[in-house]
Amino acid sequence: MNNKDLLRYSFERVEKYINSNDDNTSPVVKFKTPGELSEIFSLPVDEESASQTKFTEYIEKYLDYSVRTGNKQFLNQLYSGFNFPAFLGEVFTVVANTSMYTYEVAPVATMIEKEMINLMNSYAGYKSGDGIFVTGGSNANLVAMLSARNRVFPEGRFEGYDHNLKLKAFINEQAHYSFETAANVLGIGSKNVIKVKADKNGRLIPEELEKKLSESVSRGELPFFVAATCATTLSGAYDPIDEMAEICKKYNVWLHADGSFGGSLILSEKHRHLMKGIEKTDSFAWNPHKLMNIPLICSALLVNRKSTLYQNITDINTDYIFHDIDAVEDLGKKSIQCGRRVDAVKLWFAWKYYGKKGYRDRLDNSVAMAKYAEDIVKTHPNLELLIPRQSFTVCFRFVPSGDFDLNAFNLELRENLRKSGKSIVNYGYIGNTLALRLVIANSDVQEDDIDLFFNQLAETATSMINNKQVL
Ligand SMILES: Cc1ncc(COP(=O)(O)O)c(C=O)c1O
Which residues form the domain of 272? Predict the structure, then answer.
């Protein structure tokens, strides 16, 4: 193979792919079943090297059959969009491949990660805070729970978890499943994560939290961790941090803010009031790979006190790697990973490119577009808003006239839309009601894109009704 030719071909192919993100007529996905994909692709690795023609064919097919998450009709996930400067940052990061553990092998990236953590802490109001880039929001939540556990039981690092302590964690009943996984990983057990009732909009009810904490204490248990969710996964609701902080202070419990989805809202002067009290939290998970549209993965755990992250690490036999010779802290000393991707650099490139103001405007646009979508739902005769919009998410369903099983109809509608490649939107359940969940995570989405989505949805529904596909 001629690498020079291959590189030139790849540049052109990437350019073509990027341009197609703005083309609403190109499909979001060319849907194929797993069996069909196995036939299209020659998946097993061969004994001999592939020819250059075959190699470029693999590239073509990979791009052709992958979901175009940068297309503006990809409205399915809490991440989406194509962020050009961050893409460049990713490319340069990979070209200069290194690991974040030491200044020795990642001098510039270390300085950039420190700068990004300081900037993010300045938004959070953590005056002497710290932080680390992690492998995603789930892991940020895990490290936050680990930090809270080590606060009440520092010996746990060496002795393991003592069940006599009866540690209990408290989360919104609509919080992300990663908290239960974290309790599992930490040996605390998912049954010890107590779910607190949310109101009809999905926000944790502070009085219910206080009640659960007080009941727990009177049972002789040790509440050690409370999580406020900053934009719940299904409805985009923001928990009342300020009130929760008062309660946590009274019970001396760690308060974590899970902003894995909605944490970036802190950049918006208009809307950051939804995170009022964030500076009173002990830790904050913030995923720029969601609402800041940075390519996956880009995720940080911020902590309010400098010492926190160092106290999580069992630093045995690390002198082979941490030589402490460059008069700067090696970031690896506060991470539970050893090898660690450079994820801060693409964020830095993007922030430099848009500026603080640019990002503020981008976040404001996402909220404005979600409101635009909500208004369409409210005024359309066949659309029903299932929960008032809190932020970036609109939960709704299509209600055809006639006698239809609405859950089955909406599921089929979503699947037909997805398999047609026109749009992808996700769904979840509010009680027993299936809700289509439209998320405006891509800050480049404009009114035309949303109009197109609803037109395609209505067309697909109409053809289902005409064909009596679902009765
Ligand atoms: C509220 C919330 N917390 C945590 C996560 C997990 O984040 P990640 O996918 O980066 O692990 C998500 C993911 O959607 C989320 O919505």
Answer: 89-350
